[in-house]
Amino acid sequence: MDTIFALATAQDRAGVAVVRVSGPAAHSVGMQMCGTLPKVGSFAVRPVSSDGDLIDRGLVLTFAAPHSFTGEDVIELHLHGSIAIIDRVLDTLSAFDGVRLAEPGEFTRRALENGKMDLAQVEGLADLIDAETEFQRAQAMQTVEGALSKVVEDWRARLINAASLLEVTIDFADEDVPVDVAPEVSALLESVMSQASDEISRSYVSERVRTGFEVAIVGLPNAGKSTLLNALAGRDAAITSEFAGTTRDVIEVRMDLDGLPVTFLDTAGLRESDDQVETIGIERAIARAKTADLRVFLSENVSDLPLDPLPQDIVVAPKADLRTDGTGVSGVTGAGLNALVQEVKAVFADRATHSGLTSRARHRTSLQSAVTAMKDASRLVNQGPEVYDLAAEELRTAIRSLEFLVGRIDVENLLDEIFSSFCLGK
Ligand SMILES: Nc1nc2c(c(=O)[nH]1)N(C=O)[C@@H](CNc1ccc(C(=O)N[C@@H](CCC(=O)O)C(=O)O)cc1)CN2
Ligand SMILES: Nc1nc2c(ncn2[C@@H]2O[C@H](COP(=O)(O)OP(=O)(O)OP(=O)(O)O)[C@@H](O)[C@H]2O)c(=O)[nH]1
Ligand SMILES: [Mg+2]
Q: How does it assemble (predicted)?
């Protein structure tokens, strides 16, 4: 087993930089660079040297397998966060035999392989590192803490219970069956099916929390959409001009609305156009507006537009400053801006109350196949003891789907994909 190392902190000048080393050679490498290591489970200031040349004086932490993040022997070098120090320390580490730079996510991969966390927790950890808003942090943190794993484990236990009730009956097949297990098995299946189905519908909301809710700003050319986007963003994200048809590409601005991750989309003004490029822009605008979670129609009259508002969509008049009725929004004067933001926030805050524990298509696929197998099992159980063996087989399929979800089985082919999205040093 290679010993791996990486910079765990951001690749830039900083107060402190942390280099982690994990694997069988971690302690011996540490002793060669630092003279002696602090005793296991503690930290101390040590010189960090290369061939007798003092690179830095750092804080050194020693962990011993299995009591570390990876479950292996680990040392951490907390260095001054200088680019030159980091380069020299990484160079020095790579010169040791059997010691190499870690791949993205490789520390976490070892933690998974050593049973320190399961696949759901690993995904949660990736989300936690990517979290930009409070809702994202809270959702990811509950997954890291094992909330999803615990629920799935509970469902799995109930299905195993149901399967064993069927197995007992199957074993008694030629004798008088002691009790009819069908009611108990059905009740177990019903409870898991309803909770899993509920989780599937919640997963769409959690997915939006994870990736951000999208709000498309749509309207006629020149309505002031780009000006509005810039006002929301507090910076010049999009080009604005007095010429109708200025915006063509969809411009995205990510925002944190009191912890809710929301991406505003500025789009091309909607009209019939002879300009081929503008027409492509308009097609993109309509496509993105349709898939967005919410649309803001910056429009006096939505029937002017080739798009109908959906129930929660917001319709607001443009250029409030040119109006006398006190309504509308203006990116120039800021009139109505706060009210608009509050309205968007309210819509998503309400949707976010329906979030759950799963946030990926992968989770939904597993849950869906588990539910399908449970439905089949339930139907078979109602047909009578002659087909209990078939029902038990369906239950095993459902159990395997749940095990796949938390990575108990069969996930080798998933790992490269999951870990490739991790940062270096994690
Ligand atoms: N310096 C530093 N900060 C860090 C981490 C790290 O690895 N290093 N973490 C990394 O992501 C996070 C904290 N999570 C951690 C989780 C488990 C262990 C760990 O060593 N667990 C051992 C028990 C350690 C002990 O004796 O207290 C274990 O589970 O056996 C370390 C960090 C965030 N902050
Ligand atoms: N008076 C007034 N003018 C505005 C307001 N918002 C935008 N404008 C002006 O209207 C013109 C068009 O603004 P844009 O923000 O580029 O309009 P748009 O909706 O993005 O236009 P397209 O990208 O062409 O669809 C510019 O000259 C802006 O300065 C507003 O609230 N009040
Ligand atoms: Mg524009």
A: Homodimer. Heterotetramer of two MnmE and two MnmG subunits.
